[in-house]
Amino acid sequence: MSDRRTLRSSAWFAGEGKNAFMHRSWMKNQGLPAHLFDGRPVIGICNTWSELTPCNAHLRSIAEHVKRGVYEAGGLPLEFPVMSLGESNLRPTAMLFRNLASMDVEESIRGNPVDGVILLVGCDKTTPALLMGAASCNLPAIAVSGGPMLNGNFRGQPIGSGTHVWKFYEDVKAGRLSVDDFLSAEQGQSRSAGSCMTMGTASTMASMVEALGIGLPDNAATPAVDARRGVLAHLAGRRIVELVEQDVRMSQILTRQAFENAIRVNGAIGGSTNAVLHLIAIARRIGVELDLDDWDRLGRNVPTIVDLMPSGRYLMEDFYYAGGLRAVMRTLNEVGLLNRDAETVAGKTIGELVADAPNYNEEVIRPLDRPLTTEGGIAVLRGNLAPKGAVIKPSAATPALMQHRGRAIVFENIEHYYARIDDPALEIDPTSVMILKNCGPKGYPGMAEVGNMPLPSKLLKQGVSDMVRISDARMSGTAYGTVVLHTAPEAAAGGTIAFVQDGDLIELDVAGRRLELLVDETELAARRRGWSPPPPPIGGGYQSLFIERVLQADEGCDFDFLVGRRDAGIPRHSH
Ligand code: FES
Ligand code: MG
């Protein structure tokens, strides 16, 4: 230990003065012997465990595996809680609190005697929140995802988190499924610890962790209850101690090259549109330039080869058994679509990690010449309806609708949608374009996952399965359809979408990357003059701060004052 460099934590724990006494003495009430304060790496385990975040409810036990690894490598692990964001319960939307949680993470890291951190993440927003907060501190860090649930199973059939909720609910609305059957699918969907086992946002972000190199190999797919998830956590505990000893900071891992890899991997896995917002936000925290055009340019020629719901057939457990994300990255690497020299927290380059990765099932992870969709990735649309961009996931859309011109049916907000969608008098047909306003970052607030608004029952009963939908909202990563999302600027910020009226002609051209409202400028200007922003649902409090400082979707919805790196210098002490 004597040749160890002086670590950050020694500003708290080293020395013989009053302050060092205080810092050590109170810690010793946990039964920590004196030798643990000898200058060894102190590893913070940043835990999003919560019983209100069911997808992360097992992270206390994952933390125990991390601790074993940290102790074994000669470090001192100290677990601490941060705000946990559960997608299924938290209202109005977990996304409203992603930035708040990131502030919690950043300040908890900087204010405490830690030299490196393990980020325990799982449910959708917990991954970006912790990466964003930690990136602003730029200490050595490894993200460990909690892993997906076992495949859902209902009456002998696999069912996917979220994806089947949308599907079953449409079946109920169309009269194909009884309410009793619908309700009995609940337990079958969620039958083990872990996060959604579709390629929704949680699995996408766990894949991004692995693709960015900020997590260990197999982080994406190892099931939550597979013993190998514990092994991964144990090894992460060992590795973080080494990263601290070698002073490998997040900024050495989260490089421009790493983000390019992540974007391409997102295309290959058919990942969630939410990753667009999160990766831009994380990149801007660490100081890497990344924008919407990078998403379109880098992802454009990447075929989706992972056949998982919601775009395809299988689930995360199948993906793991098929070889997981490494098999996907190997495929990309072989055709030059991977920056193979990107460093990872594993101590090898990403190219080295995936070079020999086997693919055990070419139905689940398909070869490039037999993709699920030739054009994976995220298409970025622009036009007068989205001057700062909008996104669509072509792999989840209906090919015939990706070139479409139709009349707008406008919903001013989500309440208006609910009130109007099943009104028998609503003049809507399969060629109509559904427009939903005021569900963006400021408008909802928090940019709700309501962009994939269900179709009207009367059309579902006729067998209509998809229609063009456009909004400033997000969509659950487990959802599908010809759904244009994230229009920027949003309605509540005075974006063009605010001025769309029933009957306006709208043109969507995904191949040409265009989204136009075919209304002339003079008319639009007149509509703009009569507009004022909607009042926020709650005055004051955190929501006011959020509405005032949140950036638009094209900039990742971070707060303007949180962008960037502030590092983890040692603050003044308080005694
Ligand atoms: Fe938590 Fe899907 S609801 S991962
Ligand atoms: Mg979600």
UniProtKB/TrEMBL annotation:
Residues 40-352 form the Dihydroxy-acid/6-phosphogluconate dehydratase N-terminal domain. It holds the Pfam family ILVD_EDD_N. The keyword Transferase does not apply. One of its GO terms (molecular function) is iron-sulfur cluster binding. Keywords: Iron, Iron-sulfur, Lyase, Metal-binding. Residues 363-557 form the Dihydroxy-acid/6-phosphogluconate dehydratase C-terminal domain. It comes from the Bacteria. InterPro entries: Dihydro-acid_dehy_C (IPR042096), DiOHA_6PGluconate_deHydtase_CS (IPR020558), ILV_EDD_C (IPR056740), ILV_EDD_N (IPR000581), IlvD/EDD_N (IPR037237), Sugar_Degrad_Dehydratases (IPR052352). PROSITE patterns: ILVD_EDD_1. Belongs to the IlvD/Edd family. This is Dihydroxy-acid dehydratase. The lineage of its organism: Bacteria, Pseudomonadati, Pseudomonadota, Alphaproteobacteria, Hyphomicrobiales.
